[in-house]
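EI: anyone free to look at a 343-residue chain?
SC: sure, send it
EI:
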Amino acid sequence: MEALSSRVPKVLLSLLGSSPLRSFSTSSIPSQLEKVGFIGLGNMGYHMASNLIRAGHIVTVHDINYDAMKKFSEKGISSKKTPFEVAEASDVVITMLPSASNVLDVYTGQNGLLHGGSCLRPWLFIDSSTIDPQTSRKLSMSVSSCVLKEQKGYANTPVMLDAPVSGGVPGAEARTLTFMVGGLEEAYIAAKPLFLSMGKNTIYCGGTGNGAAAKICNNLAMAISMIGVSEALALGQSLGIAASTLTAIFNSSSARCWSSDSYNPVPGVMEGVPSSRNYDGGFSSKLMAKDLALAMASAKEIGMNCPLGSAAHEIYTELCKQGYESKDFSCVFRHLYAGKNEV
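SC: here you go
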C-alpha cells in the first residue's frame, strides 16, 4: 500500500480498504459505496443495476418508463419519481442514458440530480452514458463546484467520473463489461469496486472527459471494422466463396478481428449473435449512427479529417433512413449484399 498511499489522499484510503484490487463481495462493501442510485433502466441499465443489487448494494432506481421501474419495485427495490429523490437517498449515483440531452436533463433539469443547488447528498456521480467529452467536462465542473450536504471526512466536494462501457447487452447481463473511466484518479480507484460489481475490466483513461473520448474512438473503430468485414464477405460471396469459408480464412489470417470471429454479420455463420436472429437485439444501428455523429463532431472541433469515419457515419445514417434503425449495427452486411446468403 505504500506506493498507493503516496498518491492517494488519506481521506480516500478509507474507501479502499486493504486492497483496492481485490475481488468484490457483499461483506466488503465500504459504507461510502453502499447506497447507490441508478438512473436509466434500459437494455443496459437494467442488467447493470441488477448486478449491483446481487453484489449487495442498497440500490434506488429511477427511469421515465414506469414499467422499467416496476420490474424493480416488484422485487422490493426502492424506486423514486425524480432524479433528485434518487440523489437524496444515495451516496453514489450512476446514470446510463441514451444521449447527451438525456444526461443534461437528468443532471440539470427540473428535479434533476443537481436540483439541490450547491449542497448535494452524493459524494460521487458516475455517468456511463455514451456522450461527447465536452458535455462530460461541463457537467463535471458543475458537480465539483458544489459542496456536500454532509461532511463525512472522505471527500471535501462531490466528484464526477465519466465511465462509458464496452460489451453491449450480453456483457451487461453477464457482468463482463469493460469500463473506460475519465476523471480524478483517486475517485476512480475508490469507485473501482462498483465497476467490478457490474463488469470485469476497468481502464483509467486520464482526466475528465477522457472516458467519453475513449468510448467514441472505440465505436468509431468498431463501425469501420464491421463495414470492412461486411464488404469483404459480400465481395467474397459475389465471387463465389461461401461466407463460412471466407470467415475461416479471415480468422486464421491477418484479417481476423472482433467483427469476424466474435460478431460475424452473415446469417448462419455464427450462433448466438444478432445476425443469427434477423439482427434483433444487440447494439442498434441508431445508436451506432449517434456515436459516429459524436466522433465526427469531436473531430471537427479539433480540425481533424476522418474520411473513413465520415463514410461510416453516412452508411449508418442511410441504414436508419431505410428503416433499420432498431436492427443491430451488423445488419450493414445486408445493406452491402443483397444476394443469397450462402454459408
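EI: The mean pLDDT is 89.
SC: 👍
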